[in-house]
Amino acid sequence: MTDFVDGTAFNAEQGNRARKLFAAVVLAALDDAIADDKKYGNGPEQIARWARSRDGREVLSCAGIDPNERVVQGLMEFVGKGVRTSVALSREESERRNAAAQAEAA
Known about the structure:
This is Elongation factor P. The protein is an all-alpha fold. Helices cover 82% and strands 0% of the residues.
């Protein structure tokens, strides 16, 4: 009997890892644009230029994000708020947990 690893499961796992890696690149691009916005006041324009570029569209696609104009507008709005991604993600997670706890209590 030979050991056999399901190739489909392996490929799916590799795909998930790749998407997470590209999502991290998107988060880094957002943080860079936020830093540019604080320093130079041009963060939303920077993220829009990146997201519309060939490389930006490719990274967004690989992260599982459709690189359409609606997404570009959302990225620009996010950068305009000036909240770093790590803070926004932790706040979002905290709010989700609080909402779940309130739903359980009700």
